[in-house]
Write a structure and sequence with these properties.
- The chain is α+β, with helices and mostly antiparallel strands.
- It has a domain at about 40-140 and about 200-230: Metalloenzyme, LuxS/M16 peptidase-like (Cytochrome Bc1 Complex, Chain A, domain 1).
- It is built from nine helices and five strands; from the N terminus they run αββααββαααααβα.
- The chain has helices at about 10-20, 70-80, 85-95, 125-135, 145-160, 165-180, 185-195, 195-210, 225-230; strands at about 40-45, 50-60, 95-105, 110-120, 215-220.
- It has a five-stranded mixed β-sheet with strand order 1-5-2-4-3, covered by helices on one side.
- Strand 3 and strand 4 (about 110-120) form a beta hairpin.
- The longest helix is centred in the middle third of the chain and has 18 residues, at about 145-160.
- It is globular, with a radius of gyration of 21 Å.
- It starts with 10 loop residues before the first helix and ends with a helix.
Length: about 230
């Protein structure tokens, strides 16, 4: 168990309070660490909604992976914010979605990468091929300018997070749990700066080589099956 405290506090009082209130906790079993297992699959729920909500998921990387930072940069460039490739190509240029973004979750022994989209029941038929085309683009063909802007965007987010006491509290706890130390923003930024286009391509290929998860809800009669979607992904 990790206690993380940020803000205006007296360290001695905090330590004393924790020792008093948690001294009788039972010891945990350090030997029991269940291994994660990513399988993939498909879930479809036909429902009378205004939009189709769908998510394409893949196995990602764990927080200790050599591709951890490359995966995060790739996700940011691909589908984070209005300047991202997915937003510009699929929403702004083609008008196929109400919203679209990519993201990921990273754990101690595994991770997930996913693309979320909200679209119409007619548009979903055109959306899937276009989305798969974007995922199939070799990251080595991205421009250095795109990479530089994405890194800058990432670093701004890190530094802005430091201004929030609650965010700093959570990130310190997570860092200590995962790495047994609290990493400084400078350390994180240095890792981001070292990512190159070839690293993004390695991350992209690893993602697409995994099993596909397709989850959807809404008027989904025009949505392809997961098997057909997987065939579109190289």
């Amino acid at each position: 168990m990790v206690f993380s405290v940020s803000g205006n506090f007296e360290e001695d009082k905090i330590i004393k309070l924790v020792e008093e209130k948690f001294q009788n906790l039972p010891l945990g079993d350090d030997d029991y660490i269940p291994k994660s297992s990513y399988v993939g699959g498909e879930y479809r729920q036909e429902k009378n909604l205004e939009q189709v909500k769908l998510l394409l998921g893949f196995e990602g990387v764990d927080i200790h992976s050599d591709l951890y930072y490359a995966t995060r940069v790739y996700s940011t460039l691909l589908g984070s914010g209005m300047s991202s490739r997915l937003f510009q190509e699929i929403r702004e240029k083609r008008g196929l979605v109400y919203s679209i973004y990519s993201s990921g979750d990273f754990f101690s022994d595994s991770g997930i990468f996913y693309v979320y989209a909200g679209t119409g029941h007619k548009e979903v038929k055109e959306l899937i091929p276009v989305l798969c085309d974007q995922l199939n683009i070799n990251a080595n063909t991205f421009t250095e300018e795109e990479l530089t802007k994405t890194k800058a965007k990432f670093k701004v987010g890190i530094l802005k997070g430091e201004e929030s006491i609650s965010t700093r509290c959570r990130s310190n706890a997570s860092s200590y749990l995962m790495h047994n130390k609290v990493r400084s923003p400078d350390e994180f930024i240095s890792k981001i700066d070292s990512v190159q286009l070839e690293d993004l391509e390695k991350a992209r290929k690893k993602i697409l080589d995994s099993n596909l998860t397709l989850s959807s809800i809404g008027p989904i009669e025009n949505l392809e099956t997961a098997e057909l979607v997987k065939r579109r992904l190289s």
